[in-house]
Amino acid sequence: MHNFREVQCLATSSDPQLLTWTKWNQPVLQPPKDPRLAGFRDPLLRREGENWYLGVGSGLFRQGGRVLLYRSKDLRQWEYLHPLASGKWTGRESVNPVDSGEMWECPDFFPLGKKHVLLYSAAGQAIWESGEFDPRELIFHSERSGILDHGAYYAQKTQLDAKGNRILWGWIPETRPEVEFSAAGWAGCMALPRVLSLGSSGDLLMQTAPEVDALRAKSFIRQGPYAPVSQIALSAQDVKIENLCGEILWRTMSSRCTFVLEDRSGPWWSVEFALKSSYAAKFTVNEISAEVPFASNHNFEFHVFLDGSVAELICNHMHAFTVRIYRQPNGPLRFRSSDDPMSAFSSLQAWQLHPISPDRLTT
């Protein structure tokens, strides 16, 4: 456990390009004087009327993570109000209070649809909660919650784009030993941007930003997305993704199925799913398994992006699985179902993608 003191500081700039800054010589906000304090970092800032509101990721040992709420009119003098939201300790002891849920990192809070959404990272996961925000008491009341991504995904943050869409960004950490990424000379990368929305029940929905479509180079599928099943099954044999850079979008009505990307040496990436009940399904993406709530309409949409060592999968706009795969493929990646291809696909689209940059790192 560290013994340094976390504070909030301020820097200002009059440079239109934000290249030069003036740092205030003193912190504008000190942490509470509470011996139980588990952390005080990762501020979130927003303005309402004449007031600025600042949320700071924090928590209390043996109680749980929280977001501390402050108010100011000038960004310099701050008044502490109360916790905006609080969580519960996992009950597990840990040297790092984030791992035990006693500290929330990277909080974000914003209106979405008719509700408000709180995001934070704790216990190795990025969490979302949706619910009601009391504008008088300035307290968030959670109603629904879930996991943003069941795989290598952390330190989430959002922004509004020019059209008012809420865009989610996430950090994809390394899952290989430190000696390996040190030898490679780089570590970690950003996930593709995702547009957030809320479903009718208050569940958080996501899909990749439409700007990502500009990366499509060629389509492997000659038929339309809803061609006859016999043609779709034949089209799957034409998918050959080169240079670890591709996109596949497919739908199925099977209640149990496995889809595989493989090279000449065997499986490289796979997703296996099965309905466990009318309300839940189990997913296994490479070594990551999770049981998630699911609608009972038996319509499944899978959307996967491959870029270097990263594979990002989103199912039904709700359940995401980001995995790192460091094995270089032996030849192009082929796509297939381990089940009867005539019943596995109800639609299929696939594209070779352009790399997002000319110096993309793949090792």
Provide structural commentary.
This protein folds into two domains: 11-207, Glycosyl hydrolase domain, family 43 (Tachylectin-2, Chain A); 212-353, Exo-inulinase, domain 1 (Jelly Rolls, Sandwich), CATH 2.60.120.560. 5% of the residues lie in helices and 50% in strands. The protein has three helices and 27 strands. The strands form six sheets. It has a six-stranded antiparallel sheet, covered by helices on one side. A six-stranded antiparallel sheet has the order 17-26-19-20-21-22, with no helix packed on it. Strands 11, 12, 13, 14 and 15 form a five-stranded antiparallel sheet that branches. The two termini are 33 Å apart. Strand 5 (64-72) and strand 6 (79-86) form a beta hairpin. The protein is mostly beta strands and 363 residues long.
User: What is the helix fraction of residues, given as a range?
Assistant: under 10%
CATH topology type of the largest domain: Tachylectin-2, Chain A
Q: Order of strands in the sheet with the most strands?
A: 16-27-18-23-24-25
Broad structural category: mainly beta
Number of spatially distinct domains: 2
Q: What is the rounded distance between the termini?
A: 33 Å
Instruction: Provide the CATH superfamily of the largest domain.
Output: Glycosyl hydrolase domain, family 43
Mean pLDDT: 92
**What is the overall silhouette?**
globular
Poorly predicted regions are none
Most strands sheet: 6 strands, antiparallel
> What's the CATH architecture of the largest domain?
5 Propeller
Radius of gyration from the alpha-carbon trace, in angstroms: 23 Å
Number of strands: 27
> Strand content of the residues, in percent?
over 45%
Tally of DSSP helical segments: 3
| Text of the CATH class of the largest domain | Mainly Beta
Question: What order do the SSEs take from the amino end to the carboxyl end, as H and E?
Answer: EEEEEEEEEEEEHEEEEHEEEEEEEEEEHE
